[in-house]
Amino acid sequence: MTTMLDIKAHNVNELIDMVKQSILFDQFKRKSGGSCDYYVHGRRMVLDSGVLLACSNRMLDLAIRLKVSHVGGEVASALPLVGSMITLAAMKGYALDGFFIREAVKDHGFSHMVEGELNNNSTVLLVDDVIGKGSVALRTSRLLRQQGVAVKGFCAIVDRCEGASELLQAEGLELFSLCTTDLLKEWIDHNILLKRKLLHAE
Ligand SMILES: O=P(O)(O)OC[C@H]1O[C@H](OP(=O)(O)OP(=O)(O)O)[C@H](O)[C@@H]1O
Fold this sequence. Notes:
40% of the residues lie in helices and 26% in strands. By secondary structure, it is of the alpha/beta class. It has one domain (3-8, 42-182): Rossmann fold (3-Layer(aba) Sandwich), CATH 3.40.50. Helix 3 crosses helix 4 (79-92). Bound molecules: 1-O-pyrophosphono-5-O-phosphono-alpha-D-ribofuranose.
C-alpha cells in the first residue's frame, strides 16, 4: 500500500478536486504499454500554479520529515515540482537542493544522466506527478543507488494503484502519495461507464 501523506492539516477535498480535474476519460495508450480507460494528466497538475503550490508544499513537508538534502526526479514531469519545492524550502530556511535525471544521455556537452550536485553523502526524495506501474521509480532509484546516493523515498501526487508500492517495497523503497485512484474509485468507475454510454449513443 502507498503511504498517504497526512493532508488533514490542509484541505483534503480541495486536493481531491484538483486531481479530479486532471483525469480524462477516454482510451489512452500508456507509456508503460497497453491502454486504459482514463488518463491522469500529470502535466496539467504540475503546470497549474495553484495545484503545483499545494502539492509541492505537501511534498516539502515530507522532504523535511525525511531529512533529505536533495529532491529530484525524471524530466519533464518532476521538474516543476522540484523547482517549486526547493524555492519553498529556501523561503523557509531549509537547505534543500534539486537534481534531475535525463531519460537518455545527450550526444553533446556533458554525458551525465543525473544533473545536480549529488555525492555519496546526499540523501534524496524522488518525486513525480503520477506513478503507475513503477518503472520510472525503479529505474531512477536504481540509477541513483548505483552511484552511491541514499534514496529515502518516492513521492507522487497520484498513485494509480497498479502495483508500484509493492514493487518499490521489494527494493526497500517507500512509496508516498497525496492521492490514490483507489480513493476515487467510485467516481472513476462512474465516469468510465458514462463515457461508454456516450460512445454507444453516438
Ligand atoms: O510508474 P510508471 O508506469 O513508470 O509511470 C510513471 C510515468 O507515468 C506518467 O507519465 P505518462 O502520463 O506519460 O504515463 P502513462 O502514459 O503511463 O500514464 C508520469 O509522469 C511518469 O513519467
